[in-house]
Specification:
Strand order of the largest sheet: 1-2-3-4-5-6-7-8-9-10-11-12-13-14
Radius of gyration: 20 Å
Order of helices and strands: EEEEEEEEEHEEEEE
Structural class: mainly beta
Number of strands: 14
Shape: globular
Distance between the termini: 32 Å
Largest sheet: 14 strands, antiparallel
Strand content: over 45%
Length: 309
């Protein structure tokens, strides 16, 4: 099978498939305030430093080019994920122009005490592609997932395109993404891989207000500037639409969000990410939304400090 053609690993480890659309580690570390601490795993929600699956067995077949495959058994000890046990397989063709990948996964077991979304038995098949077609400044990415759940069939997909203007000062990069998640779609173990907003879309929306990658249609526009090799400035704009609306609470999570942020790589181990977000929901909690009291603009600020070892 050539150099590095076979890799076998077991035990606790972080596992990512493709762009993180289905699996990007065992994230969601919910703290003590939710359900009286029954699902506490340390807090920090998706920013969690603990993303490893508790038990795994992973076989990687093939190198970094051409045809390759992964066979995986993953077991979560995360109550926020229903302590799901998953079997999965991928088949990829990696070429200079881009990567095309096929993924199949099935949830073979959960803990009934924490399986709040009836995840046990869910089967998902996805087809994805990502590359630049030979143009270093171009980004093309997309994925389509078909999901069979106990309640019926669901689907989710996205298309994204971006261009980096390398010849201009500060190397501006523009991108647009459209994503759609059907009414009962289960986003599984999705998460950020490439950058902010990869799959936790909107710092306010993904952390607090929703939608949480289900029953939604989302437009995302991004702009990044790189004044130096260690500093990047960015803006992310979102428009959220709810697909199926009812008269109940949290039935209309539409809104708009604008996030302004910077990424500063202080040294090889330390980085800082300040961010300010402006979120305007369409409805408040008394009219099907999630924001308390009113639907006024929500202003949110955060400062992230990261240390890598």
């Amino acid at each position: 099978m050539g150099k590095d053609g076979l890799d076998v690993s077991v035990g606790r480890q972080n596992v990512i498939i493709g762009d993180g659309f289905l699996i990007a580690g065992d994230a969601l570390n919910i703290g003590k305030s939710f359900l009286d601490g029954a699902v506490n795993r340390g807090g920090a929600y998706y920013l969690t430093g603990r993303k490893a699956f508790d038990e795994t067995a992973v076989v990687k077949i093939g190198g970094t080019q051409g045809l390759r495959s992964d066979l995986m058994w993953l077991k979560s000890d995360n109550p926020a994920q229903g302590k799901a046990e998953i079997v999965a397989g991928t088949l990829e063709n990696v070429q200079a122009l881009g990567t095309i990948g096929l993924t199949y996964l099935k949830v073979v077991d959960t803990d009934p005490a924490y399986d709040f979304v009836d995840r046990d038995g869910t089967r998902t098949v996805s087809l994805r592609a990502q590359g630049n077609l030979g143009h270093p400044e171009l980004l093309l990415s997309g994925e389509y997932a078909r999901q069979n759940r106990n309640e019926g069939d669901e689907s989710a997909w996205y298309l994204e395109s971006g261009w980096t203007f390398s010849a201009l000062p500060w190397r501006p990069a523009l991108s647009y993404r459209f994503s759609r998640f059907s009414e009962g779609y289960d986003p599984l173990f999705y998460g950020n891989v490439r950058a902010l907003g990869t799959w936790f879309q909107g710092e306010v929306a993904s952390n607090y207000s929703g939608p949480f990658s289900t029953n939604a249609r989302i437009h995302q526009i991004g702009l990044t500037l790189s004044p130096t090799d260690s500093v990047a400035l960015g803006v992310l704009g979102y428009h959220f639409e709810t697909l199926s609306k009812t008269a109940s609470a949290f039935a209309n999570l539409g809104g708009n969000e604008l996030d302004v942020y910077a990424m500063w790589q202080i040294n090889a181990h330390l980085s800082a990410i300040p961010l300010v977000g402006f979120y305007k929901p369409e409805k408040d909690i008394n009219n099907g939304g999630s924001q308390l009291d009113n639907s006024h603009t929500n202003v949110y600020a955060q400062l992230l400090l990261q240390a890598k070892f």
